[in-house]
Prior knowledge:
The chain has helices spanning 7-36, 43-50, 61-83, 101-106.
Amino acid sequence: MPEVLSVRRREALRLDLEDQQKALIEEVCCLSRGLIAGSSVPRRFRSEQLSGEVPELPEGSKAAERLEAKARRLREISQTLARIDHVDFGSCECCGDLIPFGDLAADATRRCCDGRCGQLPGQVPT
Length: 126
């Protein structure tokens, strides 16, 4: 049986999410600047190319898709940070059982126990 999130564990999740958020903000800004400038290659990668390193980067619409995926993940993290202090944080939205801390540590944005309760996210409990 999973245990209720302690203050210490909740704070550890918060710090990890804040670190992820900062990194994603930097990535989103960098990708955005590259797309706005008319290039799918962000400036920091151009210098790597000049030094002889050729990073694998998406081109054109793939860069926009990558930017969209990063922005979506950033929204998930921001929403999680907004609800992390709520009493029900860490409880499955489908069945109400606690999500094991190990699962939350792997992805603190998860909102469901992924069907272990017999429900899938978005299903109405029977």
